[in-house]
Every structure is written in structure tokens, then in C-alpha cells.
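Hey team,

Filing this mostly as a record. A colleague (T.K.) asked me to run one chain through the structure pipeline before their review meeting, and I want the input and output archived in the tracker in case anyone asks later how it was produced. No errors, nothing strange. Just documentation.

Input sequence:
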Amino acid sequence: MIKRDQNYTTEKLVETVIYGMLEKKASEITTIDLRNIPTAVCDYYIICHAQSNTQVEAIAESVGFEAKKQLNDLPVHIEGNQLAEWILMDYVDVVVHVFQESRRRFYNLEDLWADAEITTHKEKLG
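Output structure:
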């Protein structure tokens, strides 16, 4: 699924989201490539976790800021801002999950999509 007027690749959005996460020191940044999964609702999940609700909020804000700044894009939907235990940002082809660590371990999305290609990214810029 492609958003209207999108002038960048999905891979560029993935790269931008990861950059935004790294800016706020997100932990265990993981990309789940769902393009070969027929029942998947998007192309990629990008997952990370934080140590507090304050950091969850900061990471989500950074992701949103970088996507707007670099790609002039906004999520079509955001959930979870109230408690900041798990914020979901829907960019249609890419869905971003920013968890508190305990919530990430509980939901364990990586195991749910274990048949997809899963990549863990370095946790520092540069």
C-alpha cells in the first residue's frame, strides 16, 4: 500500500525512523520485514523499547520529527500517547512500535512474526 503523493521509498522511511529512534537512545531497535508475509497489514514493523514513559514519548516525538523534517510525512494514526507504555505510529507501509521494556517482552512481536526477516540495528549514530 502506497500513500498518496509519497516521494520517497519505504526503505528511506525505515532508515529515517531508525535514525529518529537512535537520536533518543532507543534500545534493541528491530526491523521486521513483512513484505513476504501474505497476511501482513504493512511492509515493515520497526520496534524498539525505552526505560521509562518519558523516554517512550521522546522516541516517538523524535521519529515523528525526523519523518516530517526529512520526508515531509506524518503518521496517519498514533495510539498510546496517554500512558506511553506502548506508542504505535502508523505510516501505512511502516508501523512503528515504541515500548517500555516490560510491555515489549510481554507482547513479543518478534516471535509473533518469526517467519519474517528480522534485523536488529546498531544502537548508536555514526
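Quick notes for T.K.: The chain has a mean pLDDT of 92. Strands lie at 27-33, 44-50, 77-79, 86-90, 94-100, 117-120.
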